[in-house]
Write a structure and sequence with these properties.
The chain is an alpha+beta fold. The chain contains 13 helices and 25 strands. The strands form 7 sheets. Strands 5, 6, 7, 8, 9 and 10 form a 6-stranded antiparallel beta sheet that branches. β7 and β8 form a beta hairpin. The chain is globular.
């Protein structure tokens, strides 16, 4: 998990030109140079007629109308934006062309490459973070922590990530030679880049299976079944399902995964429509998995389909334990309606309930065993701007993160809030001296970013060993609690 809070992209609205019929009675009168507002007969106009009247007035009489390019579409966009941003439902959204494409890609879970995620270590080397199940990297035996020294003919050190990715993708369907350093050993492998699913990672630790499910894509159910089959072939009896950071996806994928884990005819969830009618969705085949104990890792970002799966397993099995923090609490279902111009509307059609009839909307699931993460793994901050400097005895929105980072890197601080005190400044001065920087005890953007990057590398390098939630899950399964 990254300590950096990714800023959300401000949504822009775009819609195809729409024909409107302008109706209503408008009266204008002027006296003594005073403008009297146009009037509409509210008693004879329904809500749609009012919208059409406003559209017509702005289109034909608005003073700034001739300054707006493609005014018809802009007015339509604004109207759609208003209709799809009601405070009662944050999950109904209109997507413009770019947003619709990104949303579709996020649900697909499919990528072209060798099937790894990676980060840059302190020496700027391409280091494997995750190996996705059944990818060419997985089949070739790449492991977390391996360093890719060379891809094709290119040394990866210092090479931009985009260039490495493009080089790999250019070899789609072809043999790609890579050099890998594993500890002190240099290995040569041949990979064949192609399509892979980026939602499932599977590993074993001390005989315990761990399935990391990052989202519910169209292929996640099939890959999850493959992970279970792999673990069972190794004699694994206890498994951890990691749903942290999994904000959901296709409910059909949650159903597919439930089919693997639950007996036939088990209720996965109940669906309640706007009229109060309830339909129960059940498994249609006998689950193939037979684990002694399942531990689910969850956090505040585990939402939607993740919560469906948690509810299904908790209500139907007696060998499930949840570890982590409260889940998000998204208990509604959405459908997507595509338009011919590539835009789309996602809107809520129903509320879903657990098999026992419980609604978790806006509340979420509390964990059976509550375990938080260290603050450095969850801290958010705005980031430093050019010219901004954090000085001793001052308040700054980035100061809390700065002091947490220094503490994590082994420098003693007295506080980790937005007040940057003398102890924090002294810790920073020692860091600067240790890393060849001018020991001013003050942080500009360059210094702050260097500390943040080093912290992120350390977190990646110790991601599994320092993961309190994961370690608690392993402890539960190892001890038979």
């Amino acid at each position: 998990m990254k300590p950096v809070d990714k800023k959300s992209l401000e949504k822009t609205r775009k819609h195809k030109q729409t024909a409107w019929i302008v109706t209503g009675l408008c009266v204008a009168c002027f006296a003594a140079g005073v403008s009297v507002p146009l009037l509409m007969d509210a008693h004879k106009s329904d809500d749609l007629a009012k919208v059409e009247n406003i559209y017509g007035l702005l289109k034909d009489r608005w003073f700034y109308g001739n300054q707006v390019e493609d005014l018809d579409s802009r007015l339509a966009e604004q109207a759609i934006a208003g209709m799809t941003t009601l405070e009662e439902d944050p999950h109904t959204n209109y997507f413009n062309l770019e947003e619709a494409k990104a949303f579709s890609q996020s649900l697909a879970g499919s990528n072209v490459g060798v099937g790894i995620s990676f980060y840059r270590n302190a020496d700027d080397e391409m280091t494997v973070r995750d190996v996705f199940l059944d990818s060419t990297a997985d089949k070739a035996g790449l492991r977390t922590g391996d360093v890719l020294v060379k891809v094709g003919t290119k040394e990866t050190k210092g090479l931009p990530n985009e260039e490495i990715t493009q080089t790999i993708q250019n070899y789609k369907g072809q043999k790609l030679p890579v050099e890998v350093r594993r500890g002190d050993e240099l290995l040569t492998m041949t990979l064949e880049p192609g399509e892979y699913d980026s939602t499932v990672v599977c590993e074993t630790v001390d005989g315990i299976g761990i399935i990391d499910l990052s989202s519910f894509s169209e292929n996640s159910g099939r890959k999850f079944a493959s992970a279970v089959k792999k673990l069972e072939s190794q004699g694994v009896r206890n498994v951890i399902i990691d749903l942290r950071g999994n904000t959901g996806g296709y409910l059909s994928a949650a159903k597919d995964i439930s089919e693997v884990l639950l007996p036939k005819d088990s209720v996965i969830f109940q669906e309640k429509d706007k009229d109060g009618n309830i339909r129960k969705l059940r498994t249609e085949q006998e689950g193939q998995a037979d684990f002694d104990h399942i531990v689910i890792l969850q956090d505040g970002s585990s939402a939607s389909a993740s919560e469906v799966l948690i509810g299904a397993l908790k209500d139907n099995l007696d060998n499930v334990t949840t570890v982590g923090t409260q889940t998000y609490g998204k208990g509604t279902e959405q459908v997507s309606v595509p338009f011919t111009d590539g835009t789309s509307l996602k809107y809520t059609i129903a509320e879903w309930l657990t098999p026992s009839g419980e609604s978790i909307n806006r509340t979420g699931f509390a964990p059976d065993v509550e375990v938080g993460l260290s603050p450095v793994r969850t801290v958010t901050y705005p980031g430093m701007e050019e010219g901004e400097v954090i000085v001793a005895d001052s308040v700054n929105d980035n100061a809390g993160a700065l002091q947490l980072f220094l503490q994590y890197l082994g420098y003693e601080v007295d506080r980790t809030d937005t007040y940057f005190d003398a102890a924090g400044s002294e810790a920073l001065r020692r860091f600067q001296a240790d890393h060849g920087l001018e020991p001013t005890g003050e942080a500009d953007k360059e210094t702050f970013d260097q500390i943040a990057d080093l912290t992120l590398i350390r977190i990646y390098e110790s991601e599994k060993s320092d993961d309190a939630q994961r370690n608690r899950a392993l402890e539960i399964l190892s001890s038979g609690e």
